[in-house]
Amino acid sequence: LVSPYYGLFILLGMFRVVCLLAVFDAVCLLDTGMLFPRESSSREVKELNGLWDFRADQSPNRNQGFDRAWYKSRLAETGPVIDMPVPASYNDITQDPALRDFIGWVWYEREVVVPARWVADGGTRVVLRVGSAHYYSVVWVNGVKVTEHDGGHLPFEVEIGSLIRKDPTVPCRITIAVNNTLTLETLPPGTIQHMDDRTKYPEGFFVQNFNFDFFNYAGIHRPVLLYTTPKAYVDDITVVTDFLDNTGLVKYNVSVQGAANATLSVTLIDKDGRCVATSNGPAGVLKVVDVKLWWPYLMHENPGYLYSMEVRLTAADGKSTFEDVYSLPVGIRTVSVTSTQFLINNKPFYFHGVNKHEDSDIRGKGLDWPLIVKDFNLMKWLGANSFRTSHYPYAEEILQMCDRHGIVVIDECPGVGIKDIRSFGKASLTHHLVVMDELVRRDKNHPSVVMWSVANEPAAEMPPAEFYFKTLIQHTKALDPTRPVTYITASNYARDKGAPYVDVICVNSYFSWYHDPGHLEVIPIQLNTQFENWYGKYQKPIIQSEYGADAVPGLHSDPPVMFTEEYQKVVLQSYHNVFDQKRKQYVIGELIWNFADFMTVQGILRVVGNKKGVFTRQRQPKAAAFILRERYWRLANETGRLPPWTKYPCSL
Ligand code: BDP
């Protein structure tokens, strides 16, 4: 395997310092930006959320929709349709088990009234954007294919202005076909298995296999919208922040599309609306006197401080003048790693947080504001200062909440369940690199994101894992030299092939659960050995990135037995005792598995999903939540700088 990026890695490694000051997406192969769609004086947004027409293609090869060109006319004309909410997973919306477990193409369609001005004004770009659709999407507008996208969890978009202008009298019909099939080369990977033994299985029976522990929810999971920009527009912005004494530095780079010569002015505005720095041109450094740094929740009395960077573009093409305005929230902070510490703004940061899932009743993985806000309230109630986006990128709306509330994020790509040696091949790696490009492009400007995770529990002991992870990690560091990169391991410390390349060791372990089930007494010894082994070999800081136990709410037993609330409590407490010794040395964080119960495939190890949540799926606390809450607030009071009224238990 020879990576097309290999030469660039070496070069970029050598010039890492230079990169810090320059644009940091030099190796990204994507040629356009993916700024979050925001309204401004020059941009309008029209949400297409709500009810769409929907049909699953139940034909034996799932290809009838393409064979009969369902995109050419209204979906209701080619067969029966049902109402489908967007955003939402389609799986739990009906009573039909065939739709819950559906594998293959589903079709969404909706007609949109496009404002007349957007159609009339040829100087306006009209962009169709899908926040995420799982897994492979093809999009048509009025029967014309406009784009396709490989991968769930990340946005894609396409300009459709010229198409809707072709015939302004017809309504704009948007058709999106989405296929949730996972193959050896998708992320996450999977395989389709056909069962041909007619004495055992019905005609056409097949299953989707994969090696991850969450339900493979599918559909259009995040908002679909139309937004406008002028023809000449701000396509991308990259900021890298730093500070020196009390002067903040915002290095920025703006890329422009649609104009050979554009004038750019950049203004940084504080929370009170005061302009604190200005600059001109596509790249520069904004200097902020008496800077208010971005601090994590519970580390500072004023966490999540955001400035607003207003980028104003003016361009002319002989006939017309274009002005585009885009405002980007900017948090000024630094991140670095030593052999024993994780530093935010040069101060040691200890992750006391959670692992989450995008998962809830009925909605599946669909973005839902009440759920998002409830989860943030629960995280703050717990005293959690961080979470990992296990096991895929979460909605941008969630990261924006993290920026504002000071919740620190380990941002994970969908590289979960890479266990089959064939998923370490060239095609898989190439796709994985593109997914990292897309992820970094989307999330690079979030101050809350402090580390990239390129995978969860891959088969890191397999021989090809070394080249695979070396390439992937170096590529990610070249994309973004300002953040540490890791992957989450559950393999043997001595045989883990990627560990030499990560900046922080993240280890998952389930002592007294998957190993030595029922034997709580092994935890102190085995956890201590785990830490000593990893640190002894690599001398890198360690995060316990997962630990926990299932508890069925309401099940009790003393002495504790597995699956009771008491057992979950004692597992946590036994881990905590060891964390307390090791955090004085090189353990820099602990993330519980999991924040809340979540849905999985059916299997003999799962009773209606994974029950390792400290909250139920309906977000009610189990006994373990109170253990965690006491601990996290104690940790915060030891390590943070809190105003007295937020100190546990006074605020409660
Ligand atoms: C870990 C996986 C996570 C699972 C968890 C479990 O990373 O996705 O849900 O085990 O089994 O190994 O509960």
Description:
- The chain is of the alpha+beta class.
- The protein is built from 13 helices and 32 strands.
- An eight-stranded parallel barrel has the order 25-26-27-28-29-30-31-32, surrounded by six helices.
- It is globular and about 75 Å long.
- The structure holds beta-D-glucopyranuronic acid (BDP).
What are the defining features of this structure?
alpha+beta, single chain, binds beta-D-glucopyranuronic acid, eight-stranded parallel beta barrel, 652 residues, six-stranded antiparallel beta sheet, glycoprotein, 13 helices
SSE blueprint:
Blueprint: H1 6-14, H2 16-21, E1 45-47, E2 50-56, H3 64-67, E3 82-86, H4 97-100, E4 105-112, H5 116-120, E5 124-130, E6 133-134, E7 136-141, E8 144-150, E9 156-159, H6 161-166, E10 172-179, E11 191-194, E12 206-209, E13 219-220, E14 224-230, E15 233-244, E16 247-257, E17 262-269, E18 275-280, E19 283-289, E20 307-316, E21 321-330, E22 335-337, E23 342-344, E24 347-348, E25 351-355, H7 369-382, E26 386-388, H8 396-405, E27 408-412, H9 426-443, E28 449-456, H10 465-479, E29 485-489, E30 505-508, H11 523-538, E31 542-546, H12 565-582, E32 587-592, H13 623-639
Parallel strand pairs: 25-26, 25-32, 26-27, 27-28, 28-29, 29-30, 30-31, 31-32
Antiparallel strand pairs: 1-14, 2-3, 2-4, 4-10, 5-9, 5-14, 6-13, 7-8, 7-10, 11-12, 15-16, 16-19, 17-18, 17-20, 20-21, 22-23, 23-24
Helix pairs in contact: 1-10, 9-10, 11-12, 12-13
The protein binds beta-D-glucopyranuronic acid (BDP).
